[in-house]
Amino acid sequence: MNRPNIVILGAGYGGIMTAVNLQKSMSSEEAKITLVNKHDYHYQTTWLHENAAGTLHHDRTRLAINDVVDFNKINFVQDTVKSIDPKSKTVKLEDGELNYDYLVIGLGFESATFGIDGIEEHALTIQNINSARKIRDHIEYNFAQYNLERGEREDLITIGVGGAGFTGIEFVAELANRIPELCQEYDVPREKVRLINVEAGPTALAGFDPELVEYAMNRLEEKGVEFKLGTMIKKVTEDSIIVEKDEEREEIKTKNFIWAAGVTGNSIVQESGFETNRGRVPVRPDLRTPDYDDVFVVGDCAVIMNPDTERPYPPTAQIAIQMADTVAHNLKQMVSGGEKLQSFEPHIQGTVASLGHTDAIGVVFDDKKLFGRSASIMKKAIDNRYLMKLGGVGLLLKKGKLDMYH
Amino acid sequence: MNRPNIVILGAGYGGIMTAVNLQKSMSSEEAKITLVNKHDYHYQTTWLHENAAGTLHHDRTRLAINDVVDFNKINFVQDTVKSIDPKSKTVKLEDGELNYDYLVIGLGFESATFGIDGIEEHALTIQNINSARKIRDHIEYNFAQYNLERGEREDLITIGVGGAGFTGIEFVAELANRIPELCQEYDVPREKVRLINVEAGPTALAGFDPELVEYAMNRLEEKGVEFKLGTMIKKVTEDSIIVEKDEEREEIKTKNFIWAAGVTGNSIVQESGFETNRGRVPVRPDLRTPDYDDVFVVGDCAVIMNPDTERPYPPTAQIAIQMADTVAHNLKQMVSGGEKLQSFEPHIQGTVASLGHTDAIGVVFDDKKLFGRSASIMKKAIDNRYLMKLGGVGLLLKKGKLDMYH
């Protein structure tokens, strides 16, 4: 048996789609394929903000890897990756070691703290099922405590969110919908609760059309969100954040601060000696690392430039899923001795930011703007299409957002 | 208008039943009746352990005072009692003061710490809706944290309960039923979770027939409860309890410690200068205080002796509800110039301890022992009878435990 060993690290969007593509295009005789993941489930990172807000149960967001990956064809190892040695072609796991002939790195993102004092220790971040579930419970716990305090402890029922990018805005929108429920569950008067979004840049949803941004901000302000734009977070403590605008500082008392302002590639990649640019590997057009012909990178650990804007493409699920097609194709070529590797070409079909429930904003087909219900339907359609691609109709029915119209 | 002022403090079992009885037996011309309560709802203290375990939502346990008290007949004041001056016949509230001609004290219980180091600061107690809800969320929050820790932090998923009396056992039974749900919700392996009940006395459910106690302990041990009988709690810290048995000390790591071992009367009563015995007023047979002819005490703030056993009756809902009948009768007598006050005679119809869901143990009709489903049905029947008495069929249908047989 001289089958090459293909090892895929991570079962996020890029990793699991690579595995699913390979199990379709390759026979067991062609290669031995191993998928390594910390958990026995895959989750949709783009839904985690709903789990964190408590508007969607996390079991809707995750699915058993077993449900979409055929464990007869693909060897699944549930373990945590500690490091990669591309010279000896080995991967160190918490409980063992794996050798590879071809490696696919899909280890996802980490929060970037930008060196802000106290974020590491005191901020909550939306990173995975565990941390999203914790945020939901953290907020609930503080609401539960409010009526047990003698004085009025507004810090318990003030929620601060750092960052008005995609995740920050989508999360704040879900929270705005959740707060009335929290008030009812915990006997807290709605008017006492504050939901504050702090953004260093001059606008929310930077990069979106100003008309769409205005729509989003108006809708969220109507629901009680307070925006603090052009405002830096200087420090985060156990029960407050200190912000600064125009050289004036303000302390906002909050026991609920969620940092949603920045992500970077998994630090294991850089620590393993791969060339990175702000934590991501500047991959070749065929999605291999600059230095190693046998190592591919998919998803948030990779960075590719958009030649039109001369800026990197943002790390999205859409691009990770498309990368997986290219990686699977190129692996098939290499294993079968083919020479012609495909270059990755992203096809941005549209970008939609959910504003919760039946509301959203977005751009599709390059310049068509969508608002409200039509944008929301488009958002759910995109999510449903992914589930179809990943696991067919069965998975769509099980995990899809089928309440598209209400 | 020379109507006397009747003021009832507290809308627990004794207070609210006194109010409901008076609104039936007295006309508005006879007396002005005022009911004071901290919240605008009444709750069933005997169900709080279910709310705390998370097996029953607290909205099932509470009901709007408005639903059973006619605010046209009874003046409702939502406020917190700070102190009573029986000499000047005034009650100080947080936001005002009330004068009375007749007073009914129904201010309920407080946890008794027995001077154990750290209980005040670190133990959770089942006292009211707010604290029960907090316990539910506290346990959930620690379970949510478990998978975010690198090392195995068993303290997060160990639950300690102090006391194997009525509340302690009923609470542990609900928790034993809840833990499988918690394990599923938070991805925690069941075998890692510990549920430990610590009791200083030599037996659980002291006072119950040994056969019933054995049944209860066997059932709970089957569900994974660890009993530590004859074991003193010496100290409670933020993340542990220190227990001692036969002069050997053991530290049990737990972030979830609930103290369910002792209650005493509301400290306001003693602080207001009433004669008390271990925090309760040793009332006369007509339920007035020893010193004041115009002050009645109902429920947990009163203590009456059982002449058969020469020990005080335990403070139960059953007795509080019966006391309210006597107090209402005697007030009617006094207001209408009658001389003959009734003496209180408790009628113990039965005592049933729930073991969760469809299981229980109990004694009815003096010496008939009940186990399992029949005891559970009896327990629910007792609870339902109270709701009937308090608010009629409408309330029974709204808040009753109507799933009696499964």
Structure notes:
- The structure is a homodimer of 406-residue chains.
- Chain A has 406 residues and is α/β, with parallel strands linked by helices.
- The first copy, chain A, folds into two domains: 5-38 and 79-111 and 263-347, 3-Layer(bba) Sandwich (FAD/NAD(P)-binding domain); 113-261 and 349-406, 3-Layer(bba) Sandwich (FAD/NAD(P)-binding domain).
- Chain A contains eleven helices and 27 strands.
- The first copy, chain A, has helices at 13-25, 48-53, 58-61, 65-68, 119-122, 129-146, 166-186, 210-222, 267-271, 317-335, 372-399, and strands at 5-9, 32-37, 41-43, 62-64, 74-78, 81-85, 90-93, 96-99, 102-105, 109-111, 124-125, 158-162, 194-198, 225-228, 232-236, 240-245, 248-253, 256-259, 263-265, 281-282, 295-297, 302-303, 305-306, 311-312, 350-354, 360-364, 368-371.
- Chain A has a five-stranded parallel β-sheet, with helices on one face.
- In chain A, a hairpin with a 2-residue loop joins β7 (90-93) and β8 (96-99).
- In chain A, α1 packs parallel to α10.
- The radius of gyration of chain A is 22 Å and the shape is globular.
- Chains A, B: Its EC number is 1.6.5.-.
- Chains A, B: Its cofactor is FAD.
- Chains A, B: Residues 5-324 form the FAD/NAD(P)-binding domain.
- Chains A, B: It comes from Piscibacillus salipiscarius.
- Chains A, B: Keywords: FAD, Flavoprotein, Oxidoreductase.
